[in-house]
Write a structure and sequence with these properties.
This protein is an alpha/beta fold and about 750 residues long. Among the domains are: about 220 residues, Rossmann fold, CATH 3.40.50.300; about 290 residues, no CATH class. Helices cover about 60% and strands about 10% of the residues. It contains 17 helices and 14 strands. It has a six-stranded antiparallel β-sheet. Strands 8-11-12-3-13-14 form a six-stranded mixed β-sheet, sandwiched between helices. It has a two-stranded antiparallel ribbon with strand order 9-10. Strand 5 and strand 6 form a beta hairpin. The protein is rod-shaped.
Length: about 750
Amino acid sequence: MFLKRLEIQGFKTFAQRTVLEFIADKSKNRGVTGIVGPNGSGKSNIADAIRWVMGEQSMKLLRSKRSEDVIFSGSAKKSRAGFAEVSLTLLNDDKPDIEMHEIVVTRRLYRDGQSEYLVNGKDVRLADVALLLAQCGIGQRTYSVIGQGMVDAVLSATPTERKEFFDEAAGLRTFQLKRGSAVNKLDASRDNLKQAEMLLREIEPRLTSLERQVKRLRQREALEAELKTVESSYFGSVWRELRGKMGETSKQTAAAQKEFEKKNAEIEAMEAELAAMEKAAPVSDEVRKIRTSIDALKEERSKLREQQIRLEAQREAKAASAHRPWAPLPLSKIIEKIESLTKRHDELFVLIEKGAKLDKLQKIVRELKEESAELLSKLQQPAPEPEKERTDPDLEKELAGLLVKMSKIAEEVGGLETELRDLGAKEDKGRARLFEVQRALTAKRHEAQKAEQRLNETNVEMARFETRHDALLSELRQQAPQLETGLEALAQAAGKLSDLAPAEQLQSRMQRLRSQLEWIGGIDPETLKEYDTTKTRFEELSTHSTDLKQAIASLETVIVELDRTIKQRGDVAFRELDQEFGKYFKILFGGGDAKLIKLEPEPIESAALEGEGAECAAPDEEDEERYTLAGVDIQATPPGKRLKSIALLSGGERALTSIALICAIMAINPSPFVVLDEVDAALDEANSLKFAGIVDSLADRTQFVIVTHNRATMNKAGVLYGVTMGDDGVSMLLSVNLEKTKN
């Protein structure tokens, strides 16, 4: 690394842009550049400019009180500058780990306090500049720039303050900066880990609750999907079955209606014929009276039949509304008995007309009375029949009463017809045709009665199906209204009910699914979005926490390695520095003895090192002492004396001792360049020659920029810059290349 150029503008007395070019000596690798000039000309401001551009923050070391004091303040003939800027150009010829061949470090300060650091024209931080210079082997505040009064400062400093000087001399500055950066990152990572773990503890209970809700929500979605399928199957199949049965019943009703109308038409024709015959052969008043009674009873029976049909329809409607399986009404046996009694009456009329014996007729009449009495008794107290559902007692009682009345009417009609036949038997044989028509009319009326009965049965069946139809639509609109518009399509898709599960099983399954949905209850759909967001956040924090733990472990390892490196290099460098210090002390004093004493630190407990990486050392490094040099003491004994404390040395001896220490540092860890600001001012002529010789011997490894008044030192310089100041208070340069003048 070689100092190539220094550009100064607006810094202290250098108001105008001033450039110093540093040229290596042909016979030597690095060379010596001398800066001379009268007192007050501003030559020491060049050393301050180099220190300032390297990032110095102490105004005391810069011989200022405030930061804006480094900006040219103006004079009687020159206005003040608005900013101060210094650029330091380095050539990288021995640092392959630094990719830049030419490094230009710039610092700029404005009067409003705004400060800028640039490396090759790019904005950087002060920490970046410090790390870059440390990688280049250039110290910021130690021996790279040694100003006026700083020669004795090393001896006057306390052992602890002297530590920083020797750390940089040992080349540990880079590792210390890296370690400091690693410790800061470790502390920041631990703080971030604590925050992440705190957030994880806060989020985890909420995430657990949301997971349960989302699980229930997904169960609800599955149940709703299954319920929709079951509802479609149930309503579709029941609708298909009901629609088919209603169609079949409608056909049966139409056929029964047609047959009933046909029988009525035949009856009307026969009644017309009978009326004509009666006009031709008038009947007696008694016969007419009996016929009138029969007609009245039949009309009453017709009304009771209509009332019976209405009551049976009401009973079926109530049964259907209760969603219970429907069963036919128990009227079949009663109807069969009535039909049987009617046939027996017809047989009795035939026997009467044929003139059967009286005892036979009496026997038949007796049997008819017994059967009628038995039927009447059963109607008054009907035997219990098996039923699958509860019925309305009032409705059943009213219906039973109607049946009793109808039975009595049938019995009365039978008796009147018997009387009518008895009277007919007494009529003339000329009226045989009249009785024949009457018998045929009676038979037709029985047939019409059966046709009416079948019509009533089909009407009742249709009413029952219509009631189920309305109940099904009501249930559909209440439970699944969205299926109503596509009910026909569902019926077609369902196929026959036998191809699916029974309707009772489907209905039971629907009820269970609805009960489960009611138990689950309603869940806000936004819960799923909140769950996804919370889960993503939790996973991100978990990943971040894992990464932080890995980073902390890595940083702990780095800190342990840096501590080991700092200790190893520090021990080696200290031994070498001690040897070189004694060597240069003897050269400058012509004898004597000097050495450095390491002040060991107190034992450090691992618990006391929290935050410094001690608790995170590797298991095999737990007992290894970290390199924490507590301080360095200096013992110097000039020849012919027994003094050991540096406090007892004279001013000249202290200066020579400091120069010996600086030279020793340059010997073991040569800096790319060293700025010496009048460090030889306190030396006499003989010691100045020794100092110049040492500088000349070290110039092959270190580039020197020396501000001096000493002729011996000037004689070793390859380039001399003269600094002068005019009446405008501005410093200017004059340069002389001594190598060229020698030639």
